[in-house]
Amino acid sequence: MIEMYEVKLLKIPIFDQETGDEIGTDEKYHVCSKIIGSESYPCYDKDTADELCETLNCLTNDYSLNKTLPASRKSLECHELAGRINEKQNKLNDLQHAMEHELTCELTYTEKCNNIRLHPEQVKEALELTKAPTEKQITAYCEETYKKEYTNLKIAKTNVTFINKQIDLINDYISLEKYIIRMELKK
Hints:
Layout: E1 5-15, E2 22-33, E3 40-43, H1 46-61, H2 79-117, H3 120-126, H4 135-145, H5 147-186
Antiparallel strand pairs: 1-2, 2-3
Helix pairs in contact: 2-4, 2-5
C-alpha cells in the first residue's frame, strides 16, 4: 500500500506581536503530504491526525499513479497488446468507481452547503457580520465548516484526474503496440 500522507509533530515558532521576536515554540500534529512538501493539515491531537491520515491514504491509495516504467522490449509479441487492452478495461472500471465516489462526495458536500445557503442569517451570526453575507463569505464558511467533506471532494476529483491520465498513458501504449505490430508485419 502506497501511503501519500504521514503524521508529523511539528514545532511552530511563536512570535511576540509587538516586537516580532520569537518567544517560544508550540508543538502541533500535522498530516503532511509526502509528495507536496507544503501541503499539511494541522490537527488538534494525535488521534485526529491519525484518523485524517488514514482517511487520506485510503482515498488516494487505490488511484495513485503507477511509479514503474515498462520493461525493455527485446522481443515483442501480440499478447502485450491484449494485456494493455485488459489493463485499460480495468482502469475504466476504476474510473467508474472513482466517478461514483466523486459524485457521492459532491452530493454530500453540496447538500450540507445548501442548508447553509438557505439560512444566511446563521452565517451572519456566526461571522458576526453587520449585513447579509456575500456569496464568497458563504462559500468560505461552508469550506471551513465542512472541511472533511470539502477535502474528500477535492481528493475524489484528483483521483478521477489521475485515472484519466493513466488511461491516456495506456492508450499511448496501445497505439505504440499497434504501430510495432504493423511494422513487424511489413518486414
